Records
---
Amino acid sequence: MIYSLLVLSSPVSGQGAQTAAAFAEAVLAAGHTVRRVFFFDAGCYAGTDLAVFPQDETDRLGPWIDLAEQQQVELVLCISSAIRRGQLDATEASRHEKPCASVHPAFTLSGLGELVDATANSDRLVTFGG
Amino acid sequence: MSVTVTGKKTLVVIRHTPYGSSLARAALDAAMAMAAFEQAIDILFLGDGVLHLMPDQDSAAIGVNNVGKLLASLPLYDIDSVYVDAASAAKYRIATYDTPIAGQFLDQAQIQQLLSRNDHLLGF
Amino acid sequence: MVLHTLNASPNSAAFRDCLAAIAPGDALLLLGDGVYCVRGATPACEAILRCGAQLYALDKDARAAGIIATPDTVTITDMTGFVALTARYPRQLAWY
């Protein structure tokens, strides 16, 4: 079965975003495919490469990087949600004359068309909010 | 980009207030994007989401888009149907004749049936 | 048939809206703050048990919250079980 995930939860508030990453991992382990993870609204903070977590807390970015690099899962941040939250890749940082990129390269910034495509071409769309 | 029309039906469920968080605008943006790519898309205003349908909204002084005006423009976007949780609308004294966009008011059983008729449910 | 996932405490609007939207044959998975809905012998738990859905709670969130004893009709599930539920139910609706 083809899955896509819609992540609205902030990675630093509640368990929603971490549950989403573990869910994606379990979807693949069950033999399904993940077409795309689309991060929207506060979910876009998931892509930040600049956050620093205390050593006694789990790393919020690592599970997503593993999914992208080891399982080739496509991670897309909604560009309009992302840039208003300071989540910029190198292209956007240069376009908007900001001092640096803040998004990890495992993520791409793109428009809502990627969410539309995910709904049109997935058997399951699973949303994580709150 | 273009998106193939695969015949999947999506329902966007809007449950949060229009000006209290960024979720509401995200939901409307998602619905309008679906419609722009010619996907079958309906909207359901549920619970506090029915507050999107308040008459007389004027958001000029808070510096964000007027949600009432945005909703009034939805017919231009080919959103198939707009549904409203009738019980919540009644609780907030929102009447069918007074909303910025015409919607079908549904009771609890009709809402349950609507959820089961769609392929994807996007809850905002 | 809908898989409802509830990530909100029993005092929330999400809890009330979710319960009203559940139809016979649906399933309800409690995760995050939603796990407090199945603390036994509470009004929220009584309401949940009457809602007509198959009931599940996510193990890691229940353990974190201190929800250790749940009614027999609530199945404690892990991430693999969560995936299986999304495969069994054709659509999911997130409440939070």
---
Amino acid sequence: MNKPILKLQNISYSYHSLSGEVPALSNISLYVNQGEFLAVVGPSGCGKSTLLSLIARLLEPESGTISFQNPDGSLNYPGIGYMLQHDHLLEWRTIFRNITLGLEIQHKMTPENLAYAEHLLAEYGLKKFRNKHPGELSGGMRQRAALIRTLVLNPDILLLDEPFSALDYQTRLSVSDDIGNIIRTTGKTAILITHDLSEAISLADRIIVLSDRPAVVIRDLPIRLTNYDHTPLGARSAPEFRYYFNLLWKELSHEK
Amino acid sequence: MKNKKKTDVLSAQELYLKTHRRHHHSITCMRIILLLSFLTVWELCADFHIIDSFFFSSPSMVLSCFVSMLADHSLFLHIGVTLFETIISFLLVILIGILSATLLWCSKGLSEILEPYLVVLNSLPKSALAPLFIVWLGTGTDTIIVAGISVALFGCIISLYTGFHQVDKDKLKLIYTLGGTKKDAFCKVVFPSSIPTILSTMKVNIGLALVGVIIGEFLAARRGLGYLIIYGSQVFQLNLVITSIIILCLIAMGLYQLIQWAEHLYRKKR
């Protein structure tokens, strides 16, 4: 359980443009354990998304190393599932063809995988929307379909890039509850990026606080909430919630 | 109570539909009235010698010209030739346009290199090229099809390429996070989301292909509506010229409607 599946050491990354160099991340070191839910918070525009792009290997770090321990013991990079800020369901595809998009791209349309997709659809209550188009679904259901699209590839690590920020507040609470539960019950390792402190405290096992750009790690804070029922509202009424919230708030305000 | 409310709602909806339909009908009526009154005024002016029907023709003379050409089957030949050339150049424009825009999308370097040339070729008046085509290809169908293509092609490439580029960058990122390649990004996202752009480009280009074909026929043809117009004006048979122009109007409208119908089918399918 407590083996780091992924370790980042002294990672730096800068963006280059004609008007100059913009350092986004400087000397970031962090790890995430197998089955852990890690949240990364920081001021907006501090390079949080860059961090995920580096982990997903969409970008190469300028310096530093990313090492990993694949849970199945092989030397392959762990499977990464990436959930973006918007669901980005393709309007011209049905829900089923949307959730199998990853399988299609990776040429994994095997009967077993397709059956798994059907199973996930049924399990997460989208079965009757199987042949509908995304426009006919509510924001929460769309986000759930986007999660299934990620889960169907059976990733070892889930990267969540503010996946709830485009939803209205009410939907946001229920969807984050929903998706938090799904991730917990499947035992996936997850890294959530957010600027919503309450969301981070209620979902995560551990929170990493990043500074303003160029981002450095300024705090690594394990979260232990007592007597709560694993819902965002329950978490918000746990006795420790306020303490963590104030602590994080201070860290971030110091930065400014 | 609930039932009654439901019928109330329905009747309000019906009322709305009725008003909508009435509005629609009145627009159609006005269009027809406008056309008929134009034709009547034209005919009367010609009959009472307010305008010289030798130069301006008249609806009845156009009609008799049309009927006589129907009788000797020459009309079908000319319409068929123009339609055939237009459709072939249109299809080639769309095909070459999509292929070139795809190539430009795939290679950023290539698109940067070619950009000024595309802009120049697009703004060049293509009729200036027609004499060259005649020298190179002779006076035949080839020349006319090439003229049709030359008018539409460069604008088509530019607007398709722009359309391909306006695709949501995050949707492309989605494909890359799912482990996709650039080819996947094109086939799964760029092309399908550009279909509305392709259809609207087709609407513009069917008209432009017709323009190019008529320019070609003015200069290098023995058949086709463009030839009829030039021939008619040279022998002062203005009935022939005006009849051909009216047929051209109908063809342009028909071709446009055809693509609008395709667009409608596509929308319905989604």
---
Amino acid sequence: MDFKKFLNKGREEEQNDLHLEACSLSELEGVPISPVLDDNIGILERMFSDCSDFVIRKFQLKNSVHAIAVFVDGLINTQEVNEALKSLMILEDGSADVSYIESQWLPVSQIDKVKDYKGLLQAVLSGDTGILVEGNDEGLALGIRGAEKRSVNEPEGESVVRGPREGFIENIRTNTSMLRRKLKTPRLKMKSLVVGRESNTNVVVAFLEGIVDPKLVNEVTHRISRIEIDAILESGYLEALIQDNEYSPFPQLMYSERPDTVAAALLEGRVAIFVDGTPMVLLAPTTFWMMMQASEDHYERFQMSTFLRWLRYLFLAISLVTPALYVAVTTYHQQMLPTTLLLSIAAAREAIPFPAIVEVFIMEIAFEALREAGIRLPKTVGQAVSILGALVVGQGAVQAGIVSAPMVIVVSITGIASFTIPHFNAAIAIRLLRFPLMVAAAVLGIYGVLVGLLVIVGHMASLRSFGIPYLSPIAPMSVGDLKDVLVRAPWSKLVYRPGFLGIQNARRIGGDFIAKARRSEEDAEKRESNDD
Amino acid sequence: MIEPGGHQPCPRSIAFCLSIMLFCSVLLTGCWDRREVNDIGFVIAMSIDKEGDGKYRLAVQVPLVSSLGGPSGEGGGTSGDKSFYVDSAVGKTIREAYGILQSRMSRLLYFAHYRVVILGEELARNGLSNPLDIVTRFPEHRLTSFVVITKGKGMDLLSAQPQFERFSGEALRELVKSVTIPVSMKDLAQMANHKGLDPFLPVFEPVQSHPKGKSKEVEAMGVAVFRKDKLIKILSRSDSVGLRWFQRYFNPFSMIVKLNSNEWINTEVLRGETKIRPVIKQGRVHYDIHLKSSIVITENMTTLNFDNENSIDLMEKRVSEEIENKIKIILEHSKATKSDPIGLGMVLARHHPKTWKTTYRDKWRDELPDITYTIHSKVQATNIGQTTNNIMKEDPRE
């Protein structure tokens, strides 16, 4: 759109004034900044009418040329902006050309030249300070940001015993800097994107050039840039909009708030997606087995990590099928239990008024409610809920003869088992799938449980995350990669990155380094022999 | 010829509808065989007897689950009341008796958990094939449950109330496993069906262990020996131990050995191995039986001092003679009754399969009385079984 047309629209047609007051950033694409400062002031004032936090500061340069500084109150570092303005108004003198000002007058490390309103406003709304000078069709954006942000804390969702204690925060630049500190290499690339008509959320796609499959990066950036939505308030929005299968209960992108986890994923040839305003960083492609691993697995001794992995796999199965199996066995397959155990269960169930399936539903739903209540309530009240839950649902219900004691054991084992899954969103899928399995068990017994499990496994096998089968490297089998899935092999044996991701430069240990070391040794030997 | 593109792909919605219909048909079957554990009477043990008029009496032992100590039953356990009850019914067939039983029982009788089947002596003497037909006709019945014989009525054994276990069925199972040669339903069927092998079953009886006590214990009394499926003789406990040397697994047991007229040694026989070599000489079958046993001295009431090697040799010789003796009892009994609980015919069949088929298989019982045998017994005392000499006696070395 031509600048004059745009202005005329604004001046001559009253209706279009309204439009100017409610237009989004993308519509300002290519609208140039006017050399006439008063025009700019007029546009900005109308555009930001009723915006009490938007400040237009008019001032004169030392050589009496008019200029304005525009910024959002609270997003800037006031002291440093004052310093910058001081040098403009008092200290420096010379030409009023923006390029000259930028290179000679302003002692600010981050300055961008902006040519249109979109660039200017995007910068200002993100916390920069915009400077417009009479007679210039370009503006300056000073990157002196000072918005309030949370300090770096221990990530609460993924705590570890051994490992770094820092977690991402809501500020995307802080987050990318934390990643950069882990991987100090020019190969760490961070592509910047903006998503959301109203939120204009900054999104950064990070990857390691030379390791990642370039097609994967293209696919990720393509899918993100395709998004048309008003706002991205959390990485969950983005996850939902770029995943392969919307209707699956299984998460197809993993999130992490740990810089070390993200760095590890990049080193395996994955792509990280940072979203401004959330500490959760998405990792793609994701396989199911990633969800069963904690970052600590790679820090602890390999025997312990292997043991813990097997424990998690066992408890994954337990959390999925225990209630269903209990229902199936006690209502259809009593012959499968040892006699004495069966008699104990029969004795405990003697006075229970409900069939096993009703009993299990009562308990499971009560347990889920307790868990939900414990998460939502303020921490001080949360404790009361857990005491109430343990007393009322556990002991009280058993003593009143409403549910049987074995059922309480089944439900608590299931609950504990679901907590052993390191990633919360995978645990949610398992929690949900328990219920259809219980119904199948109540209708068809163990046959039903098996059919249900087959359907689940079949679904998982058909899932893909950015083209990578969800169950790889188990299905399709990729034998070499099993040593970081079935077991956690010692680090010296994990020579190659996972092969199923289609990466370049697969060697993780040795390779260049060893070859170089050998060469220099040989050179030294040659030199010695020459000396002789 | 089919034109490309003329073939319409199946629309997704149709596939979806079909799968929903398939799923619904699965649900339509409902829960037809669903049974909650509080609607089931678990049969812990059952007994089958033959009544005087040729009818069968089926008795079942069912635990009273509510008195087993659920959360609502205060105290729990068997304070005063019995924790089970025994009911029986008579019918021309066992299934008829079962029907009568079920018609007065509010819970479904469930046979997948019985630990033992008790057969009355009278029934066993008349043959087991007919009464045990029912066992293989229902998948509920377990072929791994143990079978025992009782003198008199099986029901008396069921109603016994042993002190240690909650049910006599449970007590019987533990005893069968530990003190007798266990025979499961499957073993029994195999023994009855093979030519050259006859079944035997442990015998149990209820005994009043305390004159005034209200409890009745169950006790292993010996072994019942069969010819085909009919019981022919009940051997006493001490007469039947010879059979143990011919089983797959040797169950350790204790044996008393007479040293001379009034001196006794008690031994625990830990292991026994047997090698039988049949030789056919001029149409007669001769068995070379080699026994190897290792024993532990558990009690010494003699003047022998086992620090002395000669005493050990003497003792081992006596034990070995005693074992030979036990084997002889079984063999002689076998010859006398034409029944073969050891499976001598099977041994012959394995060593001389052709001769067995052509000559002996069909007339093995008539051949049995004519067999001859030699027994070579070797005994090794692996453990004298004491840390010091008898502390009540003077040390002979001083």
